[in-house]
Write a structure and sequence with these properties.
The protein is mainly beta. The chain has five helices and 24 strands. The strands form seven sheets. Strands 1, 3, 4, 5, 10, 11, 14, 15 and 16 form a nine-stranded antiparallel β-sheet that branches. The protein has a four-stranded antiparallel β-sheet with strand order 18-23-17-24, with helices on one face. It is globular.
């Protein structure tokens, strides 16, 4: 088995659809409903784990046994190459896809340098660099000290940047990496008499020159080759390359060292720092003292290949709506809460680039 850094460099503006999409007569109403149809929608900055899994499975199939099939069922040879099932957020146990044994969290790279999202417990300093928020005692709860960040400025908000996982610790703001590209579209209501045609706007993203999306992958029996793959809502083109690594996890370890060096975690506490999107099966609030987190909506597609007489698209089904904590989110908990915290998520989803944490134990706090 070999370790590769898989790179996807966008060749044009891209659009990663999230929960909102364009359409007619499907406006959510009432408390707790999500508005799914709007006239202006924005792309996400990064591909979801499900998107990346689909792209890598496609490439593995294309470069090994080929894409030819009846359009619905996979042959036994194809199943051996990419597995029988696609990404599933709710699957129990470790997910593998034939020759693709695991995919790590999606992040960025430029050349050989990998960049990860800056954790939210850090903020930018006046001099180039980052520092941790100072955690100070704010009171007691359940006979235990409660700590909160003393120097957080709500007007400035959370940091939105990426940092290189090397000795340089180069900081790049998200605004310098992801540029908006607005395109206007005309949407026709095919179910009506076309009198409800309307203009809609889509805000695409353009990644800064020289950067690529990437993830680390464990692969057995396939050496990925350069290729072109089409990803996203409008099937934008991406140049795909793969670099074999001598050792797995070096960039992740460098980021972990940075976090441990910078973090201000009081003694007796643990900071759980998300390196990837996190799916909590139950509310996390019961198992943490304090969190600095952001969330996004997420759906994925499932397919049923067991029946007969259905077209490919008729077999696709959209999942329910889920809410994922985004990479960079940081959760503070007591050491005796760790087991309860870890029971809230499925660690096996780390094989598809999710539910990956760095844990930082507290030190003597003066």
């Amino acid at each position: 088995m070999s370790t590769f850094l898989l790179k996807f460099r966008p060749l044009e503006p891209y659009f990663y659809g999230e929960e909102k999409n364009m359409g007619f007569d499907n406006m959510a109403k009432g408390p707790g409903k999500v508005l799914t149809n709007v006239y202006f929608i924005k792309s996400g900055n990064l591909p979801s784990p499900a998107t990346l899994v689909g792209a890598v499975r496609y490439l593995a199939l294309k470069q090994t046994v080929g894409l030819t099939s009846d359009g619905v069922h996979l042959t036994e040879e194809q199943k051996a190459a990419i597995g029988e099932s696609s990404f599933n957020l709710l699957a129990e146990g470790r997910q593998e896809f034939g020759k693709i044994k695991s995919l790590g969290p999606v992040h960025l790279c430029k050349g050989d340098t990998e960049y990860f999202k800056v954790p939210y417990f850090l903020h930018e300093t006046d001099a180039p660099g980052v520092a941790s928020y100072r955690m100070e005692k704010a009171g007691e709860r359940m006979h235990r000290d409660v700590y909160l960040p003393a120097d957080y400025d709500g007007k400035e908000g959370l940091i939105s940047a990426y940092i290189s996982a090397d000795d340089q610790k180069d900081l790049v703001h998200s605004s310098d990496l992801f540029s908006p590209v607005i395109k206007t579209r005309i949407l026709k209501d095919k179910k009506k008499d076309n009198q409800k045609d309307a203009f809609f706007k889509k805000e695409y993203r353009l990644l800064a020159e020289g950067y690529s999306f990437c993830c680390e992958a464990e692969i057995d029996g396939w050496k990925p080759k350069e290729d072109i793959v089409y990803i996203g809502q409008d099937k934008s083109s991406f140049a795909f390359t793969a670099v074999e690594k001598e050792e797995a996890g070096i960039a992740k370890n460098n980021l972990e060292n940075l976090c441990e060096e910078k973090a201000d975690v009081p003694e007796g506490l643990i900071a759980a720092v998300a390196l990837s999107d996190i799916y909590f099966r139950q509310p996390y609030e019961t198992a943490v003292d304090f969190a600095i987190a952001s969330f996004r909506n997420f759906r994925f597609m499932t397919s049923d290949h067991t029946g007969t007489g259905q077209s490919y698209y008729a077999r696709l089904k959209k999942s329910s709506l889920y809410h994922l904590a985004e990479a960079g989110s940081t959760f503070y908990l007591a050491k005796d809460q760790l087991q309860a915290f870890q029971s809230l998520f499925n660690p096996d989803l780390s094989s598809v680039g999710m539910n990956t944490f760095i844990y930082i134990e507290g030190r003597n706090h003066s």
